[in-house]
Design goal:
There is one protein chain. The protein is α+β, with helices and mostly antiparallel strands and 121 residues long. It has a single domain, classed as 2-Layer Sandwich (YaeB-like fold). 32% of the residues lie in helices and 23% in strands. It contains three helices and four strands; from the N terminus they run αβααβββ. The chain has a four-stranded mixed β-sheet with strand order 1-4-3-2.
Length: 121
Amino acid sequence: MQNRPSDRELQKKLEEAKKALQLHAGLFANATKTVGELYDLDIGTEEVWELVRELLEEITPQDYAGGRPPQKSYEKMISERELFAFCWWSTKLEKKMYLKFALKNDRYYYVSLHESRGKNE
């Protein structure tokens, strides 16, 4: 189905991501890549989860910037899991941001978080 994900599916994924972060700390799909992104945002690995929780509250299904259908991950920890990417104006960070995550076994996997680089992330 080429029109996937629907707004309803995206809303559900956002809610699942929020719930996963309420229940557990998130996990990094690729820790090496994460270090550079967090350095650029001037935040540490401990404080990133609270930030992500706050950012997820800003995001709506209309901010979806991923593939239709969603791309599948090639990262070992989340291989073949669908990736959900969003691009939006963050009131918290006062800049256009890009966030990508996957969900697996009720856990949130951080794939990417950085300032938006334009249309073709």
